[in-house]
Design a protein that fits this description.
Largest sheet: 9 strands, mixed
CATH class: Alpha Beta
Radius of gyration: 18 Å
Mean pLDDT: 93
Number of strands: 11
CATH architecture: 3-Layer(aba) Sandwich
Number of domains: 1
Order of helices and strands: EEEHEHEHHEHEEEEE
CATH superfamily: HUPs
Shape: globular
């Protein structure tokens, strides 16, 4: 089974739930390897969490480029690691940034890309991805026919399942290419105390007809 690279999405030193879902799916199609970029002092804890969910190897790269510049440094690192490891596939969370990173990595590798997958399975000619289209009216099964498959997976496509693995950490020195937009300032998002909607399995919404919070009892 080939090495499946999983780009680990993290914030404030904590692994986000979609990354754990990717590691769970990666075990179906090969041997998961986590890629942790720009985590700083939190890299060790993130690597340990990735190992808890099946990462046999954890590639770690750090540097101010990951925080000071947008998208391109992650593309540089992920493409470089994929080439060096001769990866069988690359998995990325299907977010706005994730899809841009995935598209650029696929271009660098000369590979095909599948976006917004909701399931993955092993196939004789490489990973087979399932996509849900037209408001879930149809399901499409497809695979990349050329190069290293780069696949973005929608959050909540599966439930994270722990499967402890070695999690051997390998530090990577990235050759950055530059030509990336520079971050000039940041405004921290104020926490509302509410659950993260992008990671919720079910979201219930209502308009004015609900009347008040009590109306959601229905």
């Amino acid at each position: 089974m080939g090495e499946i690279l999983v780009l680990v999405d993290h914030a404030d030193g904590v692994v986000r739930k979609p990354a754990l879902e990717l590691l769970t799916l990666a075990r179906r199609i090969g041997e998961p390897s986590a890629v942790v970029l720009g985590a700083g002092d939190g890299a060790a804890a993130i690597a340990a969490k990735a190992a808890e969910f099946g990462a046999a190897k954890v590639y770690v790269a750090d540097g101010p480029e990951f925080t000071d510049r947008l998208v391109v440094p992650k593309v540089d690192a992920l493409a470089q690691i994929a080439k060096a490891a001769d990866a069988a596939a690359v998995l990325v969370t299907s977010s706005g940034e994730g899809k841009e990173v995935a598209a650029r990595v696929a271009l660098r590798l000369g590979s095909g890309i599948i976006t917004d997958a909701v399931d993955l399975e092993a196939g004789d000619a490489g990973p087979v991805a399932t996509q849900s289209v037209f408001a879930a009216s149809f399901q499409v099964r497809s695979r990349v026919s050329h190069g290293t498959p780069v696949i973005t997976v929608k959050p909540n496509s599966t439930s994270p399942q722990a499967a402890p693995a070695a999690g051997a950490v390998e530090s990577v020195a990235v050759a950055f290419t530059g030509n990336a937009a520079t971050v000039t300032s940041r405004t921290p998002r104020v926490s509302s105390g509410r659950p993260e909607l992008t990671e919720a399995a079910i979201v219930v919404s209502g308009g004015r007809g609900v009347g008040a919070a009590e109306g959601f009892g229905v």
